[in-house]
Design goal:
heterodimer; A: alpha+beta; Butyryl-Coa Dehydrogenase, subunit A, domain 1; Butyryl-CoA Dehydrogenase, subunit A, domain 2; Butyryl-CoA Dehydrogenase, subunit A, domain 3; 3 domains; 10 strands; 15% strand; globular; B: alpha/beta; Rossmann fold; nine-stranded mixed sheet; 29% helix; 25% strand
Chain lengths: 389, 263
């Protein structure tokens, strides 16, 4: 379908897909198998200017928005969401700085992130704080002009590989939600180290590690925004980043559909290509319909969010929820269409199915997305004057 | 340093078919690409630029649609492009092509280094580079796999030959044809892609180059392609089976039966 993209947006799509096809396709299996971080691809993406799509030109970026970033993520995700996640996670790490950082922090870190010279990461999750962000135990205690961090972050995407980290820590537990603060941490800061690399079901090319803080002393200039604004910054970051996660889902669904449709046209059983059987056709019809629907939702959400609306949480959650669920459904059906071949590692769809599962879990589980949507719906209808009863 | 890179737009040979009746290339629906070997020349130029700074101009001779090939390499970081296009250039063989490209290099005036791919995947002649150097009366080296700048007037280049590698000191201006070992061609960047899209690419015709009509195109060509054909499929082949020594024995017998000289 024609989404009336600008010349520039079409170029982003074209370039990202060229990278996916020429650089990612030949190595994705090997990187998945070896659980190897895709540094070569990160270098290609850096040289291509794609890391800076959503960063303003004054900070070395391309001056686009969430939509442009989503277009690139979608194309990369057609081949591998493990690699595309490594790319997108740098943006997640950059958003707190971009949204709330001081001019100095922006000037220092955003150009490095935009050029891809250094990757960023986002450190929020802990062993006791997943869906319930208020369970965070990592503390940052003020000591003169410095803060001393102690605690452990868990399952941090790009952990150990990135050099710039946006980390959420409790600065004043008595203030509840107003007691958390984001800090910029750099790989190499004394007292900041990494735990072991996790072994995962899918997105195995992406790196997931613990961030460990032991009396890690950093200057107060590294605070993102003001002390106590951490939770708000986290929620606003997720609103910005969720369409990107949804775009991973759209790309993965499209990739799975492409392979399934080609396979179904070529695979002959009972003397006919299996696409001639209604059972297969209906599967492909559902896959194509859901993929297009999730793309339409993600594109319109991303475009809307680039207008800086005040009510973005609901739509951001909707597209993350829908595109993630669709990717899981479509990749599962792709394995079914390919049958025994689909289950084999020599064919690309089993990896897609393993990879897709994370889309329903990270950046807020899809259950949390439903909570957000449900609460927003409740608030919205609470304000309505019009009544049916 | 001013580097000129000569490229050619060729049909994507992965998808080429020969019409069985006319024995000509079926060009309909075949995508045009930049000759893959020329992308190595572009990469070699970009690496010299990255290391020491340089201005890179890419040139090609072809119909107006060859401008797309120029924009492709500009999107990878080449600074400028020139299209050599004129009806008079049609039907050029390698000599007429070299004559035209050499005239463009002369017109540019300040070129220190000319880079070409080792050959084009459609014609496979590998002649245009050396012919250009001869016409321009400058030194050249073929099958180059590494280039270093020695001083303001000399390059150090490594050539790959069948016998081994040779290292040459070569004065500039000179021409080099390169092989894939110079480095994997980089992909476009978004900024360069946007610049390439908007770039005004000058077109130089026969008058701009100061060439005579009889020296270019079909009339300036020493050779003409009179027929293109697929070699007939031979069905008289024998596939030998068994262990190596058994196969050698059978081969010897067959060669003897065929009265091959020396057997």
């Amino acid at each position: 379908m024609d989404y009336f993209l600008t010349e520039e947006q079409k170029m982003i799509q074209e370039l990202a897909y060229q990278i996916a096809k020429e650089k990612i396709r030949p190595v994705k299996g090997e990187l998945d198998e070896g659980e190897e971080f895709p540094w070569e691809i990160m270098k290609v993406l850096a040289q291509s200017d794609l890391f800076g799509l959503y960063i303003p030109e004054e900070f070395g970026g391309m001056g686009g928005g969430i939509f442009e970033n989503c277009l690139a993520i979608e194309q990369l995700a057609r081949e591998c969401i493990g690699i595309a996640t490594s790319f997108a996670a740098s943006g997640l790490g950059a958003y707190p700085i971009l949204l709330h950082g001081s001019t100095e922090l922006k000037q220092e870190y955003l150009p490095q992130i935009a050029s891809g010279e250094r990757l960023a990461a986002f450190g929020l999750t802990e062993s006791g704080a997943g869906s319930d962000v208020s369970g965070i135990q990592t503390t940052a205690v003020k000591d003169g002009n410095h803060y001393v961090l102690n605690g452990t972050k868990q399952w941090i995407t790009n952990g150990g590989e990135s050099e710039i980290y946006s980390v959420l820590a409790i600065t004043d537990r008595t203030k509840g939600p107003r007691g958390a603060t984001f800090f910029v941490l750099e790989k190499g800061d004394p007292g900041f180290s990494f735990g072991k690399k996790e072994k995962k079901l899918g997105i195995r090319a992406s790196a997931t590690r613990e961030l460990v803080f032991q009396d890690c002393r950093i200057h107060k200039d590294r605070i993102i925004g003001r002390e106590g604004t951490g939770f708000i910054a986290a929620m606003k970051t997720f609103d910005k980043s969720r369409p990107g996660i949804a775009a991973l889902g759209v790309g993965l669904s499209q990739g799975a559909l492409d392979i399934s449709a080609e396979y179904a046209r070529k695979r002959v059983q009972f003397g006919k290509p299996i696409i001639s059987f209604q059972a297969i056709q209906h599967k492909l019809a559902d896959m194509a319909t859901k993929t297009e629907a999730s793309r339409a939702l993600v594109y319109s959400t991303a475009r809307y969010m680039d207008t800086e609306p005040s009510d973005s949480s609901k739509v951001a959650a909707m597209c993350k929820l829908f595109a993630g669920d669709v990717a899981m459904q479509v990749s599962t059906e792709a394995v079914q269409i390919l049958g025994g071949y689909g289950y084999m590692q020599d064919y690309p769809v089993e990896k897609m199915m393993r990879d897709a599962k994370i889309l329903q879990i990270y950046e807020g589980t899809n259950e949390i997305q439903r909570n957000i949507i449900g609460q927003e719906v409740n608030k919205e209808y609470g304000r309505k004057k019009d009544t049916f009863f | 340093m001013h580097i000129a890179v000569c490229i050619k737009q060729v049909p994507d040979t992965k998808n080429v078919r020969i019409d069985p009746d006319t024995h000509t290339l079926v060009r309909q629906g075949v995508e045009s690409i930049v000759n893959p070997f020329d992308l190595f020349a572009v990469e070699a130029a970009l690496r010299l630029k990255d290391a020491k700074g340089a201005k890179i101009t890419v040139i090609t001779m072809g119909p107006p649609q060859a401008g797309e090939a120029l924009r492709d390499v500009m999107s990878r970081g080449v600074d400028e492009a020139v299209l050599l296009s004129d009806r008079a250039f049609a039907g050029s063989d390698t000599w007429a092509t070299s004559t035209t490209l050499a005239a463009a290099i002369r017109k540019m005036g300040d070129v220190d280094l000319i880079l070409c791919g080792k050959q084009a995947i459609d014609g496979d002649t590998a002649q245009v580079g050396p012919e250009m150097a001869t016409l321009l009366d400058i030194p050249y080296a073929t099958f180059v796999k590494a280039i270093d700048i020695l001083d303001t007037n000399h390059l150090k280049v490594a050539r790959q030959t069948d016998e081994g590698a040779e290292v040459w000191k070569i004065p500039t201006p000179c021409l080099l044809t390169v092989i894939k070992e110079v480095g994997e061609p980089r992909l476009p960047s978004l900024r360069h892609k946007m610049r390439a899209k908007k770039a005004q690419i000058p077109t130089w015709g026969i008058a701009d180059l100061g060439l005579e009509p009889e020296s270019v195109g079909l009339s300036g060509s020493f050779t003409q392609v009179v027929r293109v054909f697929s070699p007939p499929v031979r069905d008289d082949r024998v596939i030998l089976e068994g262990s190596v020594s058994e196969q050698v024995e059978q081969l010897y017998k067959l060669l003897k039966e065929a009265k091959v000289p020396g057997i």
